[in-house]
Amino acid sequence: MTIVETTGGPVEGFRENGYHVFLGVPYAAPVTPERRFAAPQPVPRWSGIRSATTLSAVCPQIPTYGPVGKAAASRLEFGTDFLTVNIRTPSVTGSAPVLVWIHGGGYAVGSANEAVLQSGAFAASGVVEVTVNYRLGALGFLHLNDGSPDNRGLLDQIAALQWVRDNIEAFGGDPRRVTFAGRSAGGFAIAAVMAMPAAHGLFAKAMPQSGASTGISTMDDAQKLNRRMLDSLRVTEAELHELSFEALLVAQRDLCNESYERHDFDRDGSASMLGVPFVPVIDGVSLPRHPEAAAAGGETVAVPVMIGCTTGEYVTHATAQPDMDFEFAAGLLHERVRPMGLTGTEIVERYRQALPDHSPRGIWRAVGGDLVFQNPATRFARLHAIRQPVYKYLYGPIEPDELGAPHGAEVGEVWYRRGMDVSHLPMRQAVTQPDFATAVHDVWVSFIRDELPQSPAGDWPCYSALQPEVLHMDSGDFRVVSDPFDGRIALWSTASA
């Protein structure tokens, strides 16, 4: 057993596979009913030594968002004491670089306690890894008009970063070398937190993975969601605080399913692009501006960035759709592209001209993948690269009809450790090529650890709008190439409408 002193009191962890493990360490006070919509509160100091040998509860949730979201939903035990971190470190006496990881799940499902994040891969590679649980759904992102702070899920992440700043040295980490990373909604969160004034000085690098400046709400959109939530529950805001977690979750799930399955721009505003209603809101306080506007103005946290996507981000999403022709694809996409000033027919015709060999479903995959993942990553990378080094990657094969590597396909490789038991991982995170998985993991470690990241292809050149070079990783092959998705961002210009 290993004992480490934290600002909340001493915690006792254990050794495993050559590194130290501390599970369920609180960075903020429990989310009790009276604090469910409050800013994160400091951890009350405990007496004695707190055991950190088992995972904490996770944020309450109900599966939603079709096949992708349901696969990401946690089946672990729910509770109120879930504002916790899991720490794995190679040594409690060193000064190693630190990875702080934010899980995905559409801001409504998932947790830091899922099996793939328990591999210890980064600790085995000399990095102190910290995975973060935070408030999801209505608890984290429902706007209220009663003075409750907006963006509570992001404020939780800020609190976790502050906890890392104040405590990670005791776990053998260097608080000056923190990489803030996440995938999917975790990647969306990284970009949003980078635009928050409270985040400055809390990390030295950032890594939005399969997600960037997607899923940001205006205050008008947030008010619409507030009204939908209250109407669905038939309560006032004051009564909302008195409801059970279960009642909140059922209403949350129903609203999420409605937004995801029946996109409606008039109802949801900009959230109709993604179909995810509970997202960060531009409140003028915690998040003053959209992350892209903040990046354009030089207001985002000024750190090097590693960013990228898979080659078939919408492959799994498409499995929820019936057979379609181009007209049906345009109808499905219409409400989603209205926030961009386009119609479904316009965007489908543009993509058919650019990708003439694609089927209707392939066009739907291309448009959806670009709208939600590829284009936001490209825009954010272009803007951030004006002032800071940006390293852009692409994971998976380029296949006909947009059948590349699906969303999340790289997670198993990123968190792969030689010798780990992979039998308990879901099929979508299976590792079939251990050597390739190790090489992919090493690319991530290189960015976290080195000023000039390396890959099996050698030096990884910086990305820019003028030279959109990416590191393409595909089944053991690593090459620096011109981004094959870069030109497709021009298809969305309203100037050409």
Explain this structure.
With 497 residues, this protein is an alpha/beta fold. It folds into two domains: 2-303, Alpha/Beta hydrolase fold, catalytic domain (Rossmann fold); 308-496, Rossmann fold. It has helices at residues 66-72, 121-124, 137-141, 152-167, 185-194, 219-233, 237-240, 245-261, 265-268, 291-296, 326-337, 344-354, 360-385, 411-414, 434-449, and strands spanning 2-6, 9-16, 19-26, 50-51, 84-89, 96-102, 128-132, 173-183, 205-209, 305-310, 390-395, 454-455, 458-459, 469-474, 477-482. The strands form two sheets. Strands 1, 2, 3, 4, 5, 6, 7, 8, 9, 10, 11, 14 and 15 form a 13-stranded mixed sheet that branches. Strands 12-13 form a two-stranded antiparallel ribbon. The longest helix is centred in the last third of the chain and has 26 residues, at 360-385. The protein is globular, with a radius of gyration of 21 Å.
Helicity, as a percent range:
25-40%
Low-confidence stretches: none
Roughly what fraction of the amino acids lie in strands?
A: 15-25%
Oligomer: single chain
> Would you identify the CATH architecture of the largest domain?
3-Layer(aba) Sandwich
So what's the overall shape? globular
Largest sheet: 13 strands, mixed
- Count of runs of 4 or more consecutive helical residues: 15
Overall CATH class of the largest domain: Alpha Beta
Q: What sequence of helices (H) and strands (E) makes up the elements?
A: EEEEHEEHEHHEHEHHHHHEHHHEHHEEEE
**Total strand segments:** 15
Please give the radius of gyration in angstroms.
21 Å
CATH superfamily of the largest domain: Alpha/Beta hydrolase fold, catalytic domain
CATH fold category name of the largest domain: Rossmann fold
How many independent structural domains?
2
The chain-level mean pLDDT equals 95
Ends distance = 65 Å
* Structural class by sheet pairing and helices: alpha/beta
